[in-house]
Amino acid sequence: MRIGPYELRNRWILAPMAGISEMPFRSLAFRLGAGLCPTELVSAEGLMRASNRTMRYLRFDPVWEKPFSVQVFGGKPDVLAEAAKVARDHGAQIIDVNMGCPVPKVTKSGAGAALMAEPERAAEVVAKIAAATGLPVTAKIRAGIDARSINCVEVGLALQEAGCQAVALHARTRAQGYSGKADWSLIRRLKEALRIPVIGNGDVLTVADAHRMLEETGCDAVMIGRGALGNPWLFRELEGGPPPTVEERHAVVMEHYEAHLAFAGDERRAVHQFRKHLGWYAKGLVGAAAFRAEAMRIEPAEELRKALDAYFRHAEPDRRAGAGAGDEDDGVDYRAAYG
After folding, report:
1. Which residues are CB-neighbours of 238 under 8 A, at least 6 positions away?
2. Contacts with 66 (C-beta within 8 Å, 6 or more apart), sequence order
3. Nearest to residue 277, comparing CAs of 322, 331, 222, 324?
4. Does the pTM exceed 0.85?
5. What is the distance between the alpha carbons of residues 227 and 132, in angstroms, rounded to a whole number?
6. Residue among 234, 282, 237, 236 nearest 257 (CA)
7. C-alpha to C-alpha distance for 200 and 267, rounded to whole angstroms
8. Which of 13, 221, 258, 261 is most buried per CB count within 10 Å?
9. Is beta strand 166-170 parallel, antiparallel or unpaired with respect to 137-142?
10. Would you state the pLDDT for residue 322?
11. Active-site residue among 37, 101, 152, 164?
């Protein structure tokens, strides 16, 4: 699969997730086999103001993040175009436009999934970014605003005409948010209508799910969000590689923690931010509930380091029937990671 001049090494893409798709996790996913890992959604207004909080989202690992895709969100085409130039000047090689986030604080400004209601404005965004930056532009869209206004094909065609290089479809409506079931038939309809690559997204949690999406929809690539949380090895398994050993899981979790501490800068903030990863990494392991309860109370970075080392050094998969199945109540709001 190609996006502009960039040929991806495979068809497995890490979904851009708020508070998750930061440099340490993206770099890890690339190393373990992902073909592309866009950033979490970055505010165009924030890039225009060059705010410290926003600019930190543009940090990337030049060794592993190839190509480097930055996802921007905003409601004003001219502002998005100028913001994309800032991202390009900081290393972005692909600009991805968020047209799918259903969160009210994003859509109230005409950004995210609000663009699904205005195909012409969505197309204008793509055209202006492409003209301003000279970079390939992609977009992540939704099925539509609600069940009565499914228009992903119409929007996809408008984006294609405007010069979009690939479209990712989260096959839920804005009204659904992250509930209900993704309608994969819409991914097939979009693929049949467009000449550019179509990336399927929604309800892909396992290797089998990913291959089934390819077979059922004919999409060019699969975007994986929740399935990769705590399991970046999924990308390796999709290429026929093995699941992690106990030793490898321990090493990767420790490495991710250290990289996150260095990335975040502020130790206390880093510890609080990394806690969400702990529930995911521990899911399905023996003693996961007790470990989470303990880890969520730890404040000092060194103490958390010791707790991670002690638990993951020997943590084995819980092979009891049904262990870990449906275990969503791990103190983490999974919905907050999707965009």
Report:
1. 10, 12, 33, 207, 210, 211
2. 30, 93
3. 331
4. yes
5. 35
6. 282
7. 37
8. 13
9. parallel
10. 55
11. 101
| Cα distance between residue 334 and residue 138, in whole Å | 25
Burial of 263 (0-12, 13-18, 19+ CB in 10 A): middle
End-to-end CA distance of the chain: 23
Answer whether 315's CB lies under 8 Å from 246's CB. Answer: yes
Alpha carbons 97 and 119: distance in angstroms, whole number = 13
DSSP letter string, 189-258 = HHHHH-SS-EEEESS--SHHHHHHHHHHH--SEEEESGGGTT-TTHHHHHTT-PPPPHHHHHHHHHHHHH
Measured between alpha carbons, how far is residue 42 from residues 83, 112, 135, 170, 238 in Å? Answer: 10, 11, 17, 18, 28
Give the DSSP H or E segment for 98: strand 94-99
Q: Annotated catalytic, 37?
A: no
Q: Average pLDDT per run of 10 along the chain, which is 339 residues long?
A: 96 96 97 97 92 88 97 97 97 98 93 96 98 98 96 98 98 93 97 98 97 98 97 98 97 97 92 93 95 94 97 92 49 45
Q: Give Cα 159 distance to the centre of its chain.
A: 21
Q: Where are the alpha helices (DSSP H) in the chain?
A: 23-31, 44-49, 52-55, 77-89, 104-107, 119-133, 152-161, 184-193, 207-217, 234-238, 246-264, 267-282, 288-295, 301-312
pLDDT, residue 51, reads: 81
DSSP 109-120: TT-GGGGGG-HH
The residue assigned the tokens 């109230």 is 108
Burial class, 173, CB count within 10 angstroms (exposed 0-12 / middle 13-18 / buried 19+)? buried
* Cα→Cα distances 45→59, 93, 152, 162, 264, Å: 18, 20, 26, 23, 22
Q: Which two tokens stand for residue 251?
A: 């090493």
Q: Hey, what are 177's tokens?
A: 């948010």
- Residue 116 falls in which region: left (phi positive, over 0), alpha (psi -120 to 50) or beta: alpha
